[in-house]
Amino acid sequence: MTPNPGAGTPAAGSPANPQSHARPKRTANNGGDSRGRAKARVNDVVDAVLVVSVRSFQDRIAHMRAEMARFGIEFEWIFDFDPDSITPELLERTFAPSDMRLPHQSAVLKHIATWRICAERKYRRVLVFEDDVVLASNFPEVLAQAMSEADALRTPYLVYLGCGHNRYAAGASDSPTMLVAGGSLPAAEAIVIDHESAVMRMAWLEKHKVTRPPDWLLREVDVELGIPHYWLREPVVEQGSMNGKFASVLDEKRRGRGRLYAWLRFRWDRWRHRAVGGRTVPTDRN
Description:
Structural class: alpha/beta
Order of helices and strands: HEHEHHEEHEEEEHHEEHHHE
Number of strands: 11
């Protein structure tokens, strides 16, 4: 088992090493902001934080260590299923013929590992990051409010924390709640999945083979299984491969345009679509 260089706990996701213990919920919450209120703590509102990455991506690993340390987040790496470690037998067992390349299949297997962890450890819910996320300064507070509202939801559910390709839930800014129901998931860089949805997806995999990358897979499988998706009124995560911080690993077109183009395009789209009105996704409120 590979040591976790970020949080001092084991890397997770290997089907050969399932764990079934449930993480005890914290009750202590020390510290406060300038107004004397207790600071929100990410690990108090989810049972685990899982970071999907590749062992050779040293720049992204360093970025995620710093990003998690910035908010005092304890986390586990998902390093299993790097492209060079996937056996032909596993590919045959998991995937049907498609146009997906090995890096996409690796990403799928890593996300499946997060479902397995949530299901087998009997976690109530887990927060899953891909390794290029950039968190807003108010991320812990917004997440805490969203998870408080999620406590009142009937499971299963998925909560999307980002803005994907600068898409926003229609009418979200006017929502009286932080969670906004509906809208198709545009990306999988920052999501919260609950136990029931993880169990349902693992059962689906026993009967089906995969032909889609992680975001498409979640969209299509969750529609089939009746797992609702929720957006945030206030997105608090950006993708570094979208906003110019990193070159894209999986999108050849985006990588060919370069990071400067990505930086400029992302900020233009953010202003145009968020402030002026542009690409939105329909929600259950429309």
